[in-house]
Request: fold
Amino acid sequence: MMKGSFPVERFQGMRTPFYYYDIKLLRRTLDALESALSQSPDFHVHYAVKANFNPDILNEIAARGLGADCVSGGEISAALAAGFRPEGIVFAGVGKSDEEITTALNAGIARFNCESIPELEVINEIAGQLGKRAAVSVRVNPDVGAHTHANITTGLKENKFGINYEQLPEVLNTACKLPNLEFKGLHFHIGSQILEMQDFVALCNRINELYPELTKAGFKVVDINVGGGLGINYQHPNHLSIPDFELYFDTFRKHLKLPVGTQVHFELGRSIVAQCGSLITRVLYVKKGTTKTFAIVDGSMTELIRPALYKAYHRIENITSDEPEEVYDVVGPVCESSDVFLKEASIDRCHRGDLLAIRSAGAYGEAMASCYNCHPLPQSFIDR
Ligand code: LLP
Reply:
């Protein structure tokens, strides 16, 4: 089996499970992103901090001058601490608290991506109290279904996100008329782990229809934020470790029909950080059942919840064995039957003490870790 290369000898003394981050790969990924962006000065990427807010990862990304897409006051603080400039920070989320709005206004972030009239009213009120003006965009629900699993689509009518077309004029009127708000643009996001460029084409088409209608109705739309969602290859992290950013941006270059000079913003999370991270876990026991063999590892859904929560596939490699492959259900110690990383995984024969790498775990891995069962939060190993 082809495997990633891991500096196993340097893992001595690390308590397992832990997150391993290949910073060289992250840098190559950021190089590819920069190069794909270089022909489009009107395209701006805000890294979606929710995907991974490990400070070392944030520092690497902030050093490239990207913006940040935040969904909480905590993420805004983490982004600022890592060196993201406030003028590059956008703040999304259906439920921004008063405290978070205050944090954002005081920090001087670029944009609030707003999702309801009551939210606009509260931002207006707090901005007034602070003697500030808040730049706002309105998140539109484009009713575009992405070809990804149901739990992570966000652009459909029935989702809680954004404003449906029928309600849009009323919301935009509110955004334009409230005195402490400055209406700037539209925000979209159709889902995550999207590999079909047709889904993004559908989004472009919706935007192309909507933009002239709104302009005709007298709304001045300065910029468009198309959200994030570009997927990665979970099957082949070794062959396809860097997403096709060229194809992604080309799709928007080709299909978005906006007046020259309209700024287009992107909020990429997974595609930037997923492949550089692996969860390293140790085999505790190999247990023979009546029909199956279980590799019981010390990692669990508390460090990486994606398989349990979404039935998401993560490739697993035994990085300390070169023996012939065998088939295992790789499971964690948590008292939940969903605490399974992978069923019927073919991996090099496992022995107690072996280290397994659960691949493509840099996005929504460490960021979604919990302390269930009193597990400590995982540490990380930063490989520069
Ligand atoms: N912008 C907005 C408004 C979002 O809601 C999201 C992700 C992003 C940007 C970044 O999307 P990305 O480029 O990473 O696909 N925990 C799930 C994914 C949830 C994504 C939520 N929103 C998972 O582990 O697959």
Notes: The first strand starts at residue 18 and ends at 22. Residues 102 and 126 are 7 Å apart (CA to CA). The two ends are 25 Å apart (CA to CA).
